[in-house]
Please model this.
Amino acid sequence: MKITLEPDRCVGAGHCVLSAPEVFDQDEADGVVLLLEPDPAEALVGAVHEAADLCPAQAILVAEAGAEAGADIGPVA
Model:
């Protein structure tokens, strides 16, 4: 799994932290998403996808391992 953040799009809603606190945090100064764990355990895959799905700004992109380069699937609806 590859997680890509687009911090310029982040609005600081915090859904990512609520969904996957082991993987995401927010900057204390401006609330922008931070990536704590770039290679999360298999058990967290669902939570990471949930975080991407719930992000109102679509600032979290997720690509599965083995996906073609540039094949970010983004939030999974």
